[in-house]
Amino acid sequence: MSPAPGAPLHRHELDVLVLGAGGAGLYAAIQAGRHSRLRTAVLSKVHPLRSHTGAAQGGIGAALGNVEPDKPEWHAFDTVKGGDYLTDQGAAFVLAEDAVRAVVELERHGLPFDRTPDGRIDQRRFGGHTRNFGEAPVRRSCYAGDRTGHMILQTLYQQCVRNDVAFFDEFQAVDIFLDGSTCAGVAAVNLATGDLHIFRARAVLVATGGFGRMFRVTSNALASTGDGPAMLARRGVPLEDLEFFQFHPTGLRGLGILITEGVRGEGGVLRNRPGERFMERYSPTLLDLAPRDIVSRAIVTELREGRGFVGDGSADDYVVLDATGVGKETLRAKLPDITGFCLTYLGLDPAEAPIPVLPTAHYAMGGIPTDTFGRVMTARAPEECYRGLYAAGECACVSVHGANRLGTNSLVDLVVFGRRAGDHVADFAAGSNLPPLRADDIDRVREALARLRETGPPAASPTAADLRDRLERVMMEKVGIYRRGRDMASAVDALKEMRRRWLDLGVTDTGRVFNREALEILELGNLLDLALLTAASALNRTESRGAHFREDHEERDDARWLKHTLARLEGGERVSLSYRPVDTSVWAPAPRRY
Amino acid sequence: MRIALKILRYDPERPAGPRFETFEVEADPGSRLLDVLLHIQRRVDPSLAFRRSCAHGVCGSDAMVVNGKERLACKTLVRDLVSADGADGGGESGGSGGEVTIEPLRAMNVIRDLVVDERRFFDRYRAVKPYLIDGGEAEGGREKPEDAGGPADSGPEPAQASPDQESGGSGEGREAPYVGTAVPLLHRESLQTPDQRKVIDEATNCILCASCFSACPVVRMVHPGFIGPAAILQAYRFQEDSRDRGFEERLEVLDHRDGVWPCESRFECTRVCPRGIKVTKHINLTKRRILDAKGGKKV
Prior knowledge:
- Chain A is of the alpha/beta class.
- Chain A is built from 16 helices and 22 strands.
- Helix content of chain A is about 35%, strand content about 20%.
- In chain A, strands 1, 2, 6, 7, 8, 9, 16 and 17 form an 8-stranded mixed sheet that branches. Chain A has a 4-stranded antiparallel sheet with strand order 11-14-13-12, covered by helices on one side.
- In chain A, β4 (about 125-130) and β5 form a beta hairpin.
- The longest helix of chain A has 25 residues, at about 515-540.
- Chain B is about 30% helix and about 10% strand.
- In chain B, the strands form 2 sheets. A 5-stranded mixed sheet of chain B has the order 2-1-5-3-4. In chain B, strands 6-7 form a two-stranded antiparallel ribbon.
- Classes of the chains: A alpha/beta, B alpha+beta.
- Chains A and B meet through α3, α4, α10, α13 and α15 of A and α1 and α5 of B.
C-alpha cells in the first residue's frame, strides 16, 4: 500500500475534510454538506457502512419522556455522576439537551425506532440512567431492537447518499498536516492502488472512533486502532483523560463480543456460581443497572474471591448473565441479535441457559480534547483552539463522559457532537482560506512510508504479530480494570521498548494493492502510541475514579485529582503530563453511590 | 484440530492469474473462520488480502464464498465447516480432515485475493434511492406532523403536542399530565405504530454485505444488469415504511427491465443471507406492490 518511489501523487483541494465515516463523521458531513458552496468529503479506511458505530446495540439516551416523566437536567446529572464528577458539567447539559433534538431529527431522517402502542419512540432502562437525580431507573434509552447503532449508521449513510456527500472509501490516513496551530490537510493512501493522496483542506474533522484494540479482550472492531488521535499525538496535540477506558461488564466469554446492557434493562440478572444476584451487594439501589465501571469491578471481585464458574479466577473464569427470566418473546422481539450471537458462537439459547460473560474493553472516555463545538483545544490555555482542526465522537473528549461513560451516551455523543462540529466546521470553512502546506510535509510522509516497501530484518526479530500480542497482553494485565502503580510502571517501560522495536518492522509483502501487512504495521504504531500515553496517564493519577481503579490508591481524591489529564508525546517516547480544571459549575462533587 | 484452507489467490501485480493455494493450520473447532484467516495473514502469509472489521457478523466486511456458499467469515465456526458443511475427509475427527475452499464473492471484479470491487453492488443500492422520502425536507422545518393538534407554527408549546390521555403507563396518579420535554411542535417525531414498524423490521436487518448479490444466479448468468436482491430489499424497506412517500419516485428504477422483473425467484439470496432475511419474499412483495399500483401490467 505504500507508494513506490515515483508513484503518482494525487492532490485534492477541499473545504471540509471529514476523517472517519462512523456516526460522528457522517453526521458532521451531512451538516457541512448543507452548505452548497463548500466542497465537503469524507475519507474512511473502511466503507462507511462497515464503521463500528454499526455494532452499538442498546440504544441512544434522550429525555423524550415518551413513556414516563424525564427531563434533560436529570440526564445531565446522571452523566456527571456516572462520570464520577470528572465530566464537564456545561458540556453534559449540551449533551442532554441536544440529545432530544438529535433523536427526533434521526427519526425524521428515517430511523426505524421501536415504538410505543401510541406510535411514539419507545424507551427502555439503561445503566445509570435515573429519574429525579438518582431515585430509581428511568426509561430513557430510545432503541431499535438491539441494533440501534446499525440503524443510526444506516440512516446517516442514507442521508449522505441523499445529499450526495463525496466519499473516499478505503483510504488510510497516514498524517494530519498540523503546522504550529493551523491544520492544513491530510495525507492518505488509497488502499486499492497504494497511491499517496494529499488532501489540502480549510478544515479537517477527525472522527476515527475508538482504540479498544490495544486490549486483548475487546468489543471493538479490528479497525478500531485510534488512527486519528495517534496521528495528532505525534504532531504534538495533547490527549485528554486517556487513563479512563471503559470495560463493559458483559462481553461474551472468550470472544469479548458485546452483550448489551439492554439485556439487563429488560430484566436480565448477573449471577455467580452459587447463584447469587451479586450486584445486590455492590449497588443496592440500581443493582444490575449500576454504571459499567461498578459492575465490571464487581464481576472481577467475584472471580477473585472464588465465586466464578471455574472458580480459580483465571482468564477463563466467568460469571453468567441470566436472561432466562426475560422471556423468549421479549428476547426474540427486542434482543434478536443477542440471541443470535449466543446461538452462533456459544451454541446456547439465552431464553433457556444463562450466558457466560466477562468484562470486555469497550470505550475510550478520553481522546482529543475539544470544546462543545468540536474544536480541538491546545494544552496552553483552556480557551485556545487549533485553527481548522475539529474532532468528534469516540476519538474526542469533550468531556462529557468524565471517568466513566453511561450506556447509550456514546451514541448520544456521536450525533450531538458530530452534528455540532459539522455545523461549526462549515461556518469556519466558509470564512477562511486554504492554509499553505509546509514544504517538507509531503517529503516527511513519503519517508515514513518508504520503509513499508522494504522487507524487514529476517526472522529472529519480533514480527508485527508478536508485538501486537504483547501490547494486548500488557494492557489487559497491567492497565486493565484493577491497576497498581508498579504494574503500570512496568507497562510504560515495556511499551517504550515495543515502540522502539516497532521502528524496525518491515514488510514481506511489497505489493501495492490492498497491502494489509503494511496497513497493520501502521495501525499497530498508532495503538502503541496511544497505549503509552494511556499507561503514563494512568500511572500518574494516584487515585481511583470511575473506570480508573487503583488498588494502591482506592479512594477518589478530589483535592488533588479533580482535574483532566493532558498527555503529550514529546520526542518520540517521552510523555509530558499537564492538567486542566473540571467544570463543576452546577453540582458539587459528591460521593458516588448507587 | 487441523484444517486445510484452499484459498483462491489473485494478485494484480503478478503475471500469474488466479490460483488456489492451500494453507494447513491448527484451529480450535470453536473459533471463527475469520480467526483462522487472521492467523494465516499475521503468522503464515502476510500477503493474504481480505476485508474484516467487527468480527461478529454486523459490519458485513468479510463476506466470501466458503465451500461454494456465501458466508461471513466471522459468523462461520470452524466446526460447522468441517462437520456439517460437507467438507470432504474425516469430518471433525481431529485428524487432518476437512479441506475448506474459500473464494472471493462472485459477480464483482476481484481486486486482490478475497477483496472484490463492490462498486457494482453499491451503485445499484444507490440507484433505488435508499433513504426516507417523506414528502418534505427532513429538517422537520415545513411538514406538518400527522398528529399536529394545534396550529402548525405554534412554536415551542409542548403541552399541545401530547394530547394522549393514557399512553403506556405514563404517569398515573400525577397532578398534571406529563407532556414530554420542550421540543418545538414542528420538530417532534412522526408517529408510527408498532404494527407499521413491524412490516419493515426484517428488511432493516440488512447489512449490505453483498452475499445475496454474489449468490444471485440471475445477476451472474442471466441478466447482468439486474439491480439485484439487496437493492430491492432496500427499496422495500422504504416503500413499506408508513412514513415514506417515495414509491412513485422509485418506480422508474424498480419497474424497469433491470429492476425487479428479471428476478426468477431462485431463492439463492434467501439461502445465503447471513442475517436470515427472506430476501426473495421481499422481492416478490415488491413485485406485487408494483403490479397492484399499475393494475397488473409489467413494464
